Amino acid sequence: MSTDQKSESSHLEVVDQQPRQPDSGTLGIHDPASQHGRSTWQALRANPIVVLFCLYGNIGALMYGFDNLVLSLALSMTAFEQTFGTLTNGSYVIPAYWQSLWNALSQVATMLGSTAAGPIQDRFGRRAAFLVAACLSAAGIAVVYTASTPGAFLAGKIVNGLSLGLALTTGQTYISEITSLEVRVTMVLTMASQNLGYLIAASVALPRMSLSSDAAYKVWIRQSASDYPQKLIIQVLFASGWVWPGVILLFLPFMPESPYFLVMKGQREKAGRMLSRLGNRASETPLILADIVRTHEEEQQRNEATKEASFLECFKGVNWRRTRIILYCNALSQVIGSSFMTNGPYFLVQAGMSSAKTGMMTEIGIAFGIASSLVTGYVMTVCGRRALVMFGIGLSTMLFTVMGIAGCFPHSSPALWVVGIFLELSWWVYGPAIGPAMAIAGEVSSVRLRAKSLAIGFTFNYFFSTVWNVVMPYLYNSDEADLGGLIGWIFAGMGAVTLLILFFELPETKGRSFEELDEMFTARVPTRQFQRYQCEVGQGYGGKMVHDAED
Fold first, then answer.
1. Where are the alpha helices (DSSP H) in 189-284?
2. In the chain, where are the structural domains located?
3. What is the C-alpha to C-alpha distance for residues 75 and 83, in angstroms, rounded to an integer?
4. Is the pLDDT assigned to residue 229 strictly greater than 60?
5. What is the reported pLDDT for 288?
């Protein structure tokens, strides 16, 4: 296999590569020839094993969603306030600084876990990173479960936060490496999984809000026969967190290592075996493996990779453009108000809404988020990534603008309902804004730097989240700024600025293999020409942009 660098256009000419016809029953990981021509549904049906491991890889997102909402819900529990709060004017109050520390340092730990994920994955593999994440999570939850002081609770949140960053980043890397172009739509399940984590936390916590003992959040209790004829046992908030590391450990022995990681480590024979375990047919496995090897070798040539990949390379040359896109994608969760929405129950109670109504609206909002994420999976195959992200951010900006207008009438009961309803409607934005963005983030990174690029992206995500988790309690607490619905103006402004940035920076990656994206970034294709650019990799094109008449 040889490659020639062409001058100005900087695209690759792959020599001695004969066109191949795809086998409709195989995965065809990242093979430009075999990845075009099948529908998403056909690819999903042909690759059930890959789909199952995509679901498994998204458990980090589920854990993150569960952990994020747990604290907000626990803050609204009488028993939790009595355990960790101080008696002030006849009622228990948890100081704002402890709320900020619990939120912020947990995000800092998640950020550190995400940063550590890159080196751990590159040295020991994706399976090892999942194992470390599961062990850390189990230990952190044990500390949280037994904590009786705010400091001990904080320590548990920090340890568990490390595991969340590690699991999330590893899962995103793994999914991007085992999916073909058509199956890559499963990357939107990241947001569906996170929303499912929110829903599980809400379903466990909301029926227990009024319990005054620590059974509300710490132990298992049996309801009376009059309340539940079958005497159902309700699983508690913090103890239920042990389920997630248990699931990781249960299925980890069956998880094939990433073929890309094995190729980078020179273990090509083992990579071939892993491709077979992922459901690829014996006749296609050598071709798929050859594509992975070719992609890795071409990238090494372009980057003069004679040494171990470093984080610094992510900020040089064309890799800096890729890193910027990943950073934008990871910032979007806070742009659409993720920290605001997860603190929604406590915010609405502070604004004067009853616990019962708050619980109802929270569960409805989360259900919206799950439905939105699932619908996005289909729509993304039709409309592409860029258009959906732009639509999602635009919709978020509109919803928060309405909320900000309602916030101008703080003493109006109808205005409070408008704030609450539009806050929950904001969950709809999760699907179109975040799902496709996570797919783009997993696609635009180079193969050799993927683990480190995604680690940088998630690190930035958690840094940005940390800032907002520190700020949020001071924006809505009644003894602080007490902005109420006026907070909507802040997120509406961020959304407007973000739309402008994404218009010039976010490319359309729908229908592009990793080899094609490598060629396009190397050729420095303008953002709005990504959809029209014709690649030579695997297709015989001359690497050029196709201009419509209107251009």
1. 189-205, 243-251, 259-264, 268-277
2. 24-545
3. 11
4. no
5. 80
Asked if 198 and 369 count as a contact pair (C-beta separation under 8 A), the reply is: yes
Nearest to 204 by CA among 239, 170, 179: 239
How far is 466 from 110, CA to CA, in rounded Å? Answer: 9
Contact 505, 497 (CB under 8 A): no
How confident is the model at residue 44, as a pLDDT?
A: 66
Strand partners, 86: 93
d(CA 439, CA 387): 13
Answer yes or no: is pLDDT of 428 > 70.
yes
C-beta of residue 495 within 8 angstroms of C-beta of residue 400: yes
Residue 138 or 118, more confident: 138
The secondary structure element, H or E, covering residue 14 is strand 12-14
Residue 7 burial (C-beta neighbours within 10 Å; 0-12, 13-18, 19+): exposed
Which residue, 444, 454, 446, is CA-closest to 119? 454
User: What percentage of the chain carries pLDDT values higher than 90?
Assistant: 20
Task: Read off the pLDDT of each residue in 146-165 and give the average, rounded to a whole number.
Answer: 90
Residue 171 has phi, psi (to 5 degrees) of -60, -45
d(CA 124, CA 406): 52
- The fourth-level CATH superfamily of domain 24-545 is MFS general substrate transporter like domains (1.20.1250.20)
List, for residues 490-520, the tens digit of each pLDDT value: 999 999 999 999 999 999 888 787 788 888 8
